[in-house]
Specification:
The chain has about 250 residues and is of the alpha+beta class. The protein has nine helices and nine strands.
Length: about 250
């Protein structure tokens, strides 16, 4: 990526905390290859078309994030129609799981001073009697890459939050089901994606009759983070190698 100057690099890649600059966790893990993302861009009509979809999708994800975090602290935010099914499913889910969150530990900036990185956690939550980091995603699946990010958060936050035990990914999405064959349709960022079982002749031939849009919520726990954290540190080393020029300019290395 091209950076005009040192300040541009710093603002796009990290945070200044107590007058010290730290790289962001999400930028560090971004060094890892993402084949699914590359395939998405390759299949798009053009790079600009794919970029437009990605930006709109990110905006929709931010909408869900903001509403979910307000609900977790007892607020009653306005819910836009375009995300209403996802939020309805989320409300039903937290009522069943009795998820509790501390307002002081939502969107909290964290720093690992020894390893020199920073980030912003979504939520520290109490779920089923366990205290852990809850990271909210609006993707179509829970990808292993996410474990690098939340392992970095765990290691940075553990000295500060007593009894921090585990970490979860909470995926919140919206889909439609075919009433005839069971295929699913996901529309995000203006892009429609149909998922079928290619071994099913019915799904392959079906003309599809789609249901109304419904929320889709999935929670997965990842209690063992040590190996993921080692992988994160390896990614950080590679990220530092990739950005050596700018990091030397600002005195980070």
């Amino acid at each position: 990526m091209f950076y005009k100057d040192v300040e541009g690099f710093k603002s796009l890649n990290g945070y200044v905390i107590d007058d010290v600059w730290y790289p962001r966790v999400t930028k560090i893990v971004g060094i890892k290859a993402k084949p699914a993302l590359y395939r998405f861009y390759a299949e798009a009509a053009s790079f600009s078309a794919a970029d437009s979809i990605a930006k709109k999708s990110a905006s929709e994800g931010t909408q869900i994030h903001e509403v979910v975090e307000k609900i977790l602290v007892g607020e009653f935010p306005v819910i836009e129609p375009n995300i209403a099914p996802a939020i309805a499913a989320f409300k039903e889910f937290i009522a069943k799981k009795n998820i509790q969150a501390d307002p002081a530990l939502i969107e909290k900036r964290i720093v690992h001073y020894d390893q020199r990185y920073a980030g912003t956690i979504d939520v520290v939550a109490l779920i089923d009697g366990k205290l852990g980091i809850l990271d909210i995603k609006t993707s179509q699946a829970i990808y292993r890459d996410y474990n690098l990010q939340i392992s970095a958060y765990m290691e940075a936050l553990r000295p500060e939050v007593k009894d921090l035990q585990t970490r979860w990914i909470l995926r919140i999405d919206q889909i439609q089901h075919c009433l005839k064959c069971g295929a699913t349709l996901r529309t995000k960022g203006g892009r429609e994606k149909i998922k079928i079982d290619w071994g099913s002749s019915l799904m392959k031939k079906c003309g599809h009759q789609w249901s109304e849009v419904k929320g889709d919520v999935e929670l997965q726990e990842f209690p063992y983070w040590q190996e993921d954290y080692e992988a994160f540190l390896a990614a950080k080393k590679l990220w530092e190698w990739e950005n050596e020029y700018w990091l030397k300019k600002i005195g980070y290395i």
